Amino acid sequence: MEDISQFFAPIDIEGTTEFPENTLGTSIRKYLTGKPFPELKGVHLAIIGIEEDRRAVNNEGCGEAADAIRPYLYNLFKGSYKPRIADLGNIKQGHAVKDSYFALTSACHELIKNKIIPIVIGGGQDLTFPIYKAFDKIEPTINLVDVDAKFDIGGPDSEFNSSAYLGKIILHQPNILFNYSNIGYQTYFVPQKEIELFHKLYFDAYRLGNVRSEMEEVEPIVRAADLLSFDISAIRMSDAPGNGNASPNGFYGEEACQITRYAGLSDKLSAIGFFEINPKKDKRGQTAHLVAQMIWYFIEGYYKRYSDFPFRKKSDYLKYRVSIKDHKNEIVFYKSKRSDRWWMEVPYPAQKKLRFERHCLVPCSYKDYEAATKEEVPDRWWQSYQKLVS
Prior knowledge:
Layout lengths: L23 H4 L1 E2 L14 E6 L14 H10 L10 E7 L5 H17 L3 E5 L6 H6 L8 E6 L18 H6 L5 E9 L6 H10 L2 E4 H6 L4 H6 L3 E5 L21 H13 L5 E5 L10 H17 L14 E6 L8 E6 L5 E4 L7 H4 L4 E4 L1 H8 L5 H11 L1
Parallel strand pairs: 1-3, 2-3, 2-4, 4-9, 5-6, 5-8, 6-7, 8-9
Antiparallel strand pairs: 10-11, 11-12, 12-13
């Protein structure tokens, strides 16, 4: 593994050296002032703080998030697992924003390549872009899931920032984006033309009210993700006040924790980021404490992974074939005996096999199977099919 220590500065804050027994703070390998950079051999998860907030719209100060969250995280008791986690310290602001992006991309690329999941904390959500670039030359195409009240596409002439980063991802070459899913958008924050654009691109967008009424349906969305980006403004102000763009509506804190636990459980997810947390606007550390708990749930989910994707032995799954009237293809479903989770098979052109093979099994729910038995093509199946054949 290549040396990435050059990109990091050590942690130098109070409350990072002594912790009660069996807390995460006693288990995490930390890059502390005066200590060597953590040994990464055998590490599963790597915490990265980043202080870059120069493109965070209306949220200056969110670059200080990682140092505010660490004391809360370290003092949480670990579950019934032996965590192999390293805290690599902070990526400082570079001379220019592009220097910070380069450092984050380089560090995440090396970690992902070596099967270590980066947990990125701090800065604006524009940092999703350099993490996305880290997957280049690792995977031919990936799925990005964004928990956000808005789409953050931006216009053709928009300055690249935390409110206009998605457009750059969509247009970036080489194009490795297979699918983008938004969880929790609030319609009054989203122009109708952006919703129409999403439909044309066969992207997935789930309104806050619909998601909150069926939280279990979030699991297959997150299970499909390679990268999950969480904008803390998706959580209501009463639960997460530490954000310059906080609003009255959004997810409750426990719902946010449920989403990150789903992310941890996903065998596919390879990177996660928590953005827009602003300690300068936080009341009594409430937001920092919540994000620490969200990360705790992600860690717990990771150590409870079922390892049933990609496929194990055929005997570990139940296979169901459902015929759709007037549809030339039947839909094949698989149910894991280990986890009770569902997938459905989507056919794709033979010439595209190598590029899209990892997307032909789409995570789904029992509701999708029920819809198919009623001769309704599940939306998830149709969206994936359209992207594969286009």
